[in-house]
Amino acid sequence: MKATLVAAVIAMVGGQAFADGYKSVQTPRVTSVHDWSGAYAAVGISYSMGSYTTTGGSAYVAPDAEGVGISAILGYAMQDGAFVYGGELMGNMDRADGTAAGCGLGGGITCRSSIRNYLAARVRVGYAFNETMLFATLGYATDKQDHTIRNGGVKVGVNAQRHYGPTVGLGVAHALNEDLSVRADVEYYDFGDRTYNLTVPGATTIDTNTVSARISLMRRF
User: Where is the Outer membrane protein beta-barrel domain positioned along the sequence (predicted)?
Assistant: First the structure.
């Protein structure tokens, strides 16, 4: 009888120890990071605001320009764990305009500033929190702008110039499924200065900065 009881106790203790030991070797479940790698394309809607500073002592005050445009992005991303990096090309097709009266040139004068599309080549570096990724962009961009001045409705000065300069941006992307995601960007463009040959008020150097906000639908291939 005693032998039977001892055997039962040993069996119970041994079984419990085995169960505890089995539990101790269990590993926690690891959640995989969403795959952001590969080629991708995006289309979106942007809102751009251009501001101007006249240098060289000119009295001309160019009005700020703003407007809505359509954009497209083509890029390729690589991924190392949660880190995502790559390069992309962005094209923004819009017509941002600004008009004002006087413009520092006196009564009867009206003027208009316009941004005609811009392109950017840039690198993108991000960190993925599974289905959400925060990223930054850095690159070089170009756009075409023009300034028109009228006196009593008659053009007395008009000139277009292409600007070039660096661009930086911040953004966030969120995956909807394996291939589709939504993306939001805020970008700053320092397009530098160019000299505009205007009959009135004459040759004028204008420095340009542009801020753009964009929301896009992106597809990974």
Answer: 6-215
Q: What is the pTM of this model?
A: 0.81
User: pLDDT of 89-132, one tens digit each?
Assistant: 999 998 899 999 998 888 889 999 999 889 999 999 999 999 99
Low-confidence ranges of the chain (pLDDT < 50): 1-10, 13, 17-19, 22, 24, 30
Closest CA to 50 of 218, 190, 201: 190
Residue carrying structure tokens 């009005």: 63
Domain residue spans in the chain?
36-220
Structure tokens at 86: 């790559």
